[in-house]
Structures are given as structure tokens and as C-alpha cells.
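As noted in the main text, all predictions were made from sequence alone. Below is one such record, for RimJ/RimL family protein N-acetyltransferase.
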Amino acid sequence: MPGLSYPIATQRLLLRPLRAGDGAAVHAYHRLEAVARYQSWTERSADDVADRLAEWADLDGTDPEAKALVLGVTLKGSDRIIGDMVLLFTDRAARQAEVGFTFNPDFHGQGLGSEAVAALMRFGFEIYGLHRICGRCDARNEPSWKLMARLGMRREAHFREHAIFKGRWDEEFHYAVLEDEWRLEQGRAD
Ligand SMILES: CC(C)(COP(=O)(O)OP(=O)(O)OC[C@H]1O[C@@H](n2cnc3c(N)ncnc32)[C@H](O)[C@@H]1OP(=O)(O)O)[C@@H](O)C(=O)NCCC(=O)NCCS
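Prediction:
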């Protein structure tokens, strides 16, 4: 992929592909119920994390046909992973992607998730030429939808009791931003 270069630096963070050696750092938060609560998965064992890392190592952006890009996040000055993010390429022809993000609770509440996801979105629009980036979350997952709103994503839908999620009715918010809207916001911020 032209323009692909790691790590991606933000003010406080570095974004890079994940590797097998990140197992302990990723397991430290993927094992927590509070982190898995609103995800499609349940608390992960160390072996589950090792399996995911093996899969994600191939999703480093080098294959233009890959179904997703997965990046880990570290603080500058440390190589320990504090969060991970995905851009899932849902429709290549229409340049659509869905963003996902998971951070270690030890690093919540500092704007680090927003900073990292903002950089991933920039990467998606500028390097991948995306037209639209969306995100979904459980309506009870306030930190998640607040993060998306903070980054200029619009709430496009609230699906009421449309599925069963972990044994109860699912309430889901859909957020999205178009490339044009995103560029307009960037221009205002500059
Ligand atoms: C979703 C998730 C990444 C959000 O984490 P977060 O730390 O709340 O999000 P941000 O990085 O955007 O930080 C925002 C918070 O930091 C505060 N903050 C402090 N310094 C800040 C700064 N410099 N810039 C921005 N926000 C700052 C904000 O006020 C906000 O706190 P508030 O919500 O109490 O007002 C996190 O809750 C998570 O990983 N959850 C588990 C996994 C999950 O559910 N993922 C989503 C699945 S859909």
C-alpha cells in the first residue's frame, strides 16, 4: 500500500502492527469482563489472545486485498501495547470501512483512545482513500459512542431490540462520517 509507514505518531502515541510478543500486554486487558462486555467476544484467555495475534499479524496493511487493518497502540517511550484498533474494509468498491477500538482500562479517561482512533481515521481517509467510516456500539456503551461523537461521527441509527446480545435485547447505535465531512472538520481544526 503506497504511503504505508510505521509507526504512525500522534502527540502522545505510536500506532504499529501487532506481533506475537505483544501477547502479555494485550491479554492484560482482553481478559477483563469490563473490556469484553459490549464486544462480540467474551473474556479472552492467553491462548485466545495468541490466536488473535497470529491472525492480526497478517492484517498489517501490506496486503491491499486484506479484509481489515489491525494496529496496536503504545505510549511514546514504551513498546507496551495499551490498546488495539481495527479498520474493517466492509466494501472495497464503495470505499466503506468500520472502525473498532479496545483500550486497557488503566489508560482510559485521558483522551488516548480518541487520539489513536483519530489517527486511524486519518489513515483510512488519506492512505486508503475511504469514502465513509462507520462504527457501531451497544447503546449502553457510553464511552464508546462518546468517543465516536468526539471524533465528528454522526449518530445515524439506533436499532431497538433488533437482536439478542449476550442473552438480552440488543440496543445498538450506528455512527458514521463521510470523507467530505471529515475534511471539513479538519480544515476547521487547522
Ligand atoms: C471505548 C473506549 C476506548 C473509550 O475510552 P475513553 O478513555 O473513555 O475514551 P477517550 O480516549 O476518548 O477519553 C475520553 C475521556 O478522557 C477525558 N480526557 C482527559 N484528557 C483528555 C484529552 N487530552 N483529550 C480528550 N479527552 C480527554 C475526556 O474528558 C473523557 O472523559 P469523560 O468521558 O469522562 O468525559 C474504552 O472505554 C474501552 O476500551 N472500552 C472497552 C472496549 C469497548 O467497549 N470498545 C468499544 C466496542 S464498540
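The chain is about 30% helix and 30% strand. The first strand starts at residue 8 and ends at 9. These features were considered when defining construct boundaries for the mutagenesis experiments described in Section 2.9.
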